[in-house]
Each structure stands twice: as C-alpha cells, then as structure tokens.
Specification:
The protein is an alpha/beta fold and 344 residues long. The chain folds into 2 domains: 174 residues, Rossmann fold (3-Layer(aba) Sandwich), CATH 3.40.50; 138 residues, N-(1-d-carboxylethyl)-l-norvaline Dehydrogenase, domain 2 (Orthogonal Bundle). Helices cover 49% and strands 11% of the residues. The protein has an 8-stranded mixed β-sheet with strand order 3-2-1-4-5-6-7-8, sandwiched between helices. The longest helix is centred in the middle third of the chain and has 23 residues.
Length: 344
Amino acid sequence: MSGTAPTSTATTIQPIHTIGVVGAGAWGTALASIAARAGRSVTLWAYETEVADAINSTHENNIYLPGITLAPEIRATSDQSVVAAMDAILLVCPAQSMRTVTSSLAEHVSAGTPVAICAKGIEQSTGKLMTQVVEETIPHAIPAVLSGPSFAADVASGLPTAVTLACEDDDVGQALIDALGILTFRPYLVNDLVGAEIGGSVKNVLAIACGIVEGKKLGASAAAALTARGFAELTRLGVALGARAETLGGLSGLGDLILTCGSLQSRNMSLGAALGEGRSLADIMSERVTVAEGVATAPAVVELAQRRGVEMPICEAVAAVVTGTTSVDDAIVALLSRPFKRES
C-alpha cells in the first residue's frame, strides 16, 4: 500500500449515486451532509435508535452535532442491511468499534463495494490499522481511507475543507471523489493508504501532548517544538510501515497535525488540556459523549513502534500518562531530560 500519485488500473466501477454512512456521531453526520449536498442519496446508520428517530423527525443530530440543520433527503436508520446496500459506504464508527461493526455489516455488503474508512485510530487489542481490520472483516469490499484536517462543525457548516482520499485503485478513488467532492469539500487522491492512516492516527496522540502543554501553560514555543518533534515521530513510524513521506507531509499528515495540535476544538487536544490542568482522565471521559481516539491509540502506537524499532518518546509519554503509568509532571520532566542530539 504505497505511492502518492494515482496509477491507472483496469477496474470498472459504476458512478456512485447512493452512499451509506456508518456512524452518526459528529463526523459521520457531517459527511452525510456533504454527500447530500453533492447530490447523493444518503442513508445514515446510527447505533442509537433515538438518534436515528431524531434525525428523521427534526433533521438535526442534537446529541452529536447540535445546531446544524440536515437536508431532509438524509434518511437515518438503525438497520445495517439498509445502509450496506448503498453504492458506497463510509465507515465513521470509532476505531475501537470498527471490527465489531464491520463484522456484522459484512454479510450485507456486495462484492466490489467501495468502503471508505473515516475513523482515525489503531486497534488497541491487535495493533492493526483500520484498513487491515476491514480487509479481514469485509475482504470482498474495496478499501479506501478518507482523512485530513477537518472539524465536523466546519464541514457541516459549509466552510472550506480539503482532505486526502487514499485508494489503491484510482478508478474507485476517483468515483468516491466525484461522489463527495463539492465547492467547499475538496478530496485529493493518493494511493498510499498506510500514509493516510498513520497521519490521522498518530496526530490524535500528539494532540493530547499539545493539549497538556496548553493546560500546563508551558508556552507557544514549547507547543511549536512539540508539534515539530511530534511530526518527526509520525514520519518515522509511517515510513517504517511503508508509507510515503510525501503523504505524511500532506493533508492527512502534517495538515491534520497542524489543525488538531492548534485548536481546543479538537477532542484530543481539549482532553490533553484538561489533563494538564490536573484533572483525572476518568473524570474527563465521564463528561463526554464523544470519543477522543488518541487515548486508546496511544498505547497501540507505542507497541507498534517498538515492534518496528522506531523511537517515539512523545507518544510514549502520552501513552504512559493515559494508562496511569506516570504523572503528567513526571512525563514532562522525562522528555525535557532526554540527551541532546542531532535534529535528524
């Protein structure tokens, strides 16, 4: 799974007229809105029946994306067989739920259906990327990855956004872009699924670190240094796994890192800020209805990096904090006490 420039293949795919979105959180709802604006017939699957009922009756997801009016053409359901019958599927469930959701979805998905992974994380129990999970659970589908700097509220509000659409088959990738691309939502095609996944996954861990810097009031200089050194870690791991450096330096890597490490609108950065202020992880998590993917991904990233012999001290510090192995203050001291060395 590598390469940044699309390459021609012999696949023939019909235009995508209907799209199923699996996961009615903020991001899934925003993507459903984009697909509807692109003129597609959209079915949105919600785990909670009350969420589906509310969307159908009020045209708003008042739990996960309040204040955004949804197109009446968006139909919500809690029946997986309905959403799986669409021409293409967007998987927007949390990363740690991906295997469970796709395993039950698989029997309803037709062979050759494009399935775009829109979750950003690494499976904690296995250390596998989401593409690997989907290849195991829905092997008859065609995998793709949609990732990049994109807050759900911005996208749903129609603010300009650019993302990466990664697919090994550029005919399928282009069909997905044609189905989702509009004036304010611009997907860029690459063939590097690993690069698109690693960028989106690791930046969540780094955003927690940048949030801790914010919460501890360590200053803008420290935040900039942490972001830059974090990007070096992200790049080292991605390249070790076969990703292209160009992909990691693009929208799904550097672009997403800049967004998520620079705004408390980020779930992961705001969680890190609360940790930096001295709050416990359990208290922070108990107050949220949304998922901060970096918490579960951090130890998975560290384990994956160790297996590959990749040094990732910032991610290791975050993993130690969220697993309760060390305190925020001790993690900061450990990072600042590392030996001086060449930058690259």
